[in-house]
Queue: 3 jobs
Job 1
Amino acid sequence: MAIKTMQGDVYTLLPKNHIKVGDKLIFKADTTKFEDFNLTDVKKKYKVISAIPSIDTSVCMLQTREFNNKLVSKYPDVQLITISRDLPFALTRGCESFLNPNHILLSDTNYRDFGNKTNLYFDFNNLLARSVIVLNENNEIIYLQIVNPVSSEPNYQEVYTFLDKL
């Protein structure tokens, strides 16, 4: 029996029918204080969701720091949200030294609502696929980047170029 790993083509590892541009996305997750978070409570016009497999990996930490350091300060009308299936205290431990107050960290461990609604997860290990999603004021997906291979960082410049046009 072959053991699946997160190497290779991400699209062959994802469940079929993942979200796409034009779809609406509403989900529930846990904050780092183990409180319920509902996407509908975010009032900023645009939301950037940075999905990562685990904050305990170097690439996920690089992605989280990059968006925390550059996106939050450059785009004040955009709410940055990082989500993973890490437990809330793991997210806090990993990010407490640099986290911007305008950066929301979320855990999809309890409800698994984000992963299940987007189908951007690997069912063999239940980790989220590395991806970047931009939502408009109606929570419709206007940009989607699924990082392939998952061990790579997102194309940050592509995200920033897209946000510059909003």
Note: The longest helix spans residues 58-74.
Job 2
Amino acid sequence: MKRAVVRLIGFLAALTAPTGPGFALEVSRSVEIQTSPGAVWALVGDFCAIEKWHPMVVSCTLSNDDSEGRAVATRSLVAAGNLGTIVEVETSRDEKTMTYSYAYVRGPLPVKAYNATIAVHPNGSGSTVVWTATFDAAGMTDAEAKADIEGVYDKGLAGIAKEASR
């Protein structure tokens, strides 16, 4: 009986233990800005405002697709350098905590199962903007995909800091 319980526990542990390819990659980047959280959120909080602060985004078109009786904000981003169009859908928004989350639908990014959040937090008299994501690599190694997304985030956060200081 004891042996059966040990085997059962081992079997259940094997079922729930993460394995190599199943691990989602994670990226988290942040920037501290000497601008009030409200002012920073006014800059980044609109789902299509990314065209104003991210140097890799040429334009953003917002649509509200009705999916199963509810409005869903979808943005189409034209990437700089003729890289193509990125389509993302907003999955949650909280004006009070100054956060929104979104999922990648399609485009030239080397990812799949990509979900991200942008948040603005108070930090003394300024703010900290945090951009996080989980995703799987697609078409390149995990390290390459992670480095690619980190580069996108670093450029975007630098753009936010630049625009917020104006």
Note: The beta strands are 25-33, 57-67, 70-79, 84-94, 99-106, 111-123, 126-137.
Job 3
Amino acid sequence: MSEETTGGPAGPRAAADLDLKPALEAMLMVADEPAAEEHLARILERPRRQVADALRELADEYTAQGRGFELRFVAGGWRFYTRAAYASAVESLVLDGRTARLTQAALETLAVVAYRQPVSRSRVSAVRGVNCDGVMRTLLQRGLVEEAGAEPETGAILYRTTNYFLERMGLRGLDELPELAPFLPEAEAIEAETQEGVPSFDPDAPDDGPGTPVMPGTDDVDVDDQTEL
């Protein structure tokens, strides 16, 4: 007996049978980059011109209705963005409990990772002289550092800087980092303090102790990004 005769729920509709505008809204809501008209048209099995017209109509409707978001054509595709008039509310939500700029401790930790990568968390803590667990988590969340495997001898997780770090620093590669190595202690000098399995710091302790010099030009690193819906 079929679902139609039993009154059961109908299955999902084919893409070509969906209402165009709601379908576009649903797809753009989950897009993590601007979606090209050709790509959307292919998925929905519609002519590109029909999709393009629907997208422009949606953008005009959101503006006319005064919605808190808008639909923009950027970088060859369409994507939702929060409207600039409501930036203060969005920033309060996104930055709640966090500072927009990196702290001095975070900049010092980032400098050690940049010049000693790949490097373990305990080695960074030994170089700085204070626990770096908290600021390392911040740098990971901001996308400035990432895991880079494990140290063969100890199994400790190693960290390195990301492409986003290079972008924020305005560098084409790590070879453009300013000369700073003479200010950092050699690996042998801190070898005794880098046993990953031996707890040497309290993870909840404040991170405001002495540190290494900060990379030139990073005093005002601002990690604010355009907020996208």
Note: Confidence is low (pLDDT under 50) at residues 1-8, 190-214, 216-229.
